[in-house]
Design a protein that fits this description.
231 residues, alpha+beta, three-stranded antiparallel beta sheet, 28% helix, Actin, Chain A, domain 4, 2 domains, Heat Shock Protein 90, 3 helices
């Protein structure tokens, strides 16, 4: 993908941090990091993208500081009554910008929540922006026709088979069915070498494997890829 033309953004880090307490005990440890985006000479685009992430982060913060806080207090009172230890709830959001070239910006962010038990849960979200217009791009926006889906499925299932045969990781036995079942066109972002397609925790592999991510090379799509988006 070309980097010779197109707008490019500067991405900065902002945070909401809090540790609300009850009777002097921290109930929820909150750390929400989100991007602020500055697109050169396009203040309306900068405002649109930055507001999108700030509004989302603010809602997540309010959920953690109010709804989860109240749940944590109930859990704390119950555990104290049973003489059980209490572990503070934990809410963490982090983000990455894997692609920022040729007028396109991809950002993904992970939200981790721990509310008791053996471990927490992480959910990933991703967005790809056309920096000249400030429009969020769908996966289909990159292709001339819908045949791109079969390329993703074939590549991902072949890669899983290769990893299993190499003994590098473990996937559920019905991974071929799950690759189709849990494929979500919103779960993608761009990288320097290809489209990153990711799957939710537990969907095609065990929790210990983390969020499965597959990089499908741009050249795998041949002429179906819309070059005008990148040049």
């Amino acid at each position: 993908m070309s980097e010779k033309t197109g707008a490019r953004a500067a991405v900065y880090q902002k945070k909401f941090i809090a540790k609300p307490t009850y009777k002097g005990i921290v109930m929820v440890d909150i750390s929400i990091t989100f991007p602020q985006v500055d697109v050169w000479e396009k203040p309306h685009v900068s405002q649109r993208i930055s507001s999108f992430y700030q509004d989302s982060a603010k809602k997540y913060y309010e959920y953690a500081a109010h709804e989860l806080y109240e749940e944590a207090i109930k859990e704390y009172i119950f555990r104290m009554g049973q003489h059980f230890p209490f572990n503070a709830y934990n809410v963490v959001q982090t983000f990455e910008k894997p692609y920022n070239l040729a007028g396109l910006l991809s950002i993904y962010y992970d939200r981790y929540e721990y509310t008791g038990g053996a471990h927490g849960n992480t959910v990933r979200y991703a967005d790809t922006w056309h920096l000249s217009s400030g429009r969020r791009l769908t996966l289909s926006d990159f292709f001339e026709d819908s045949s791109y889906k079969s390329v993703f499925f074939e590549y991902i299932t072949a890669e899983i088979k290769r990893q299993i045969e190499a003994g590098n990781t473990y996937y559920f036995d019905d991974y071929v069915k799950n690759v189709f079942r849990y494929f979500d066109e919103e779960n993608y972002y761009l990288t320097d070498t290809g489209f990153a397609i990711y799957y939710p925790l537990y969907s095609i592999a065990a929790y210990v494997q983390g969020i499965p991510v597959f990089i499908v090379p741009y050249e795998a799509f041949g002429r179906n890829l819309k070059k005008r988006l990148f040049e």
